[in-house]
Amino acid sequence: MTEFAKPRHPIRVVAQRTGLSTPVLRAWERRYGVVTPNRSNGGQRLYSDADIRRLQLLATAVDGGRSIGLIADLESPQLEALIDEDRQMPIQPVGGHVAPDTERVTLALDHIKQMRTDALEQLLMRSAVEMRPHELVESLMVPLLQEVGRGWQAGRLPPSTEHIASVAIRRFLEWMSSTNQKDQAAPLALTGTPAGQQHEFGALLAGVVAAYEGWRVRFLGPDLPALEIARAAQTMNARMVALSAVHPRLDAKGVHEVLELRRLLTTNVKIVIGGAGAEPHRDRWQEAGILSPSTFSGFRDSLQIPENKS
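and the corresponding structure tokens:
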């Protein structure tokens, strides 16, 4: 047995490497037989590198709009071809979206693949000067982060490359947010991700947009329970909490956490949630008085500075 096929990874490691929750992993195994993990002597699922690679490909294809039921039987080379086909299709902007700046995105990806972090940071800094803030976020940062995520999941970007790129991009976004917060009397917005959500870039991007719209911004970090977010908002007298849920899709527990946050905070604190993981629950958010814009343009509309109320 080759090292690539040797079962050695527990399900929590697989969840971290693929971005799939453990319930989704079990459901895909049970319903579609996408992989067949071995069992340890104690009955624990153990996955091989080959299993993880296949699950990454399936997750990437599903994120691109494919149904798991229609692609579950495809072999890895077929999945790779399908993903490449999807990636080569021109990206069509949906109402309110700013079209991707393909030239800048392609150049940034080339810097990332070659690990030219200085060149990447220079490109981002130059773009920050040349582009309006919402254009920078929507036409460069969003598609760039999507491509980096897809490349990592599909194995086109090694973990070390993805990690170096993520550090550089995070540093740039934090700089963007901090350098545009000059009014200490401005209302405070907290950004972060709810419990179970590890992908933080959506929240960082929201912070950049909010800062340019006149808010002070503090990033709480990823994967926080409702009680901790509420405590921070109350202690810091925040006027908004902006949450990002990108992947995986919020399950019943995740939805409950966000609804609990709304219950814990007074109504003069806006709660906004966005991202692909939150999109399927828009009806629940509306019922609870939680804003759920589907685009960054919509998010900007929610950032009208509230009047100070004593």
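(Above: one complete record from the training split.) The chain is about 55% helix and 10% strand.
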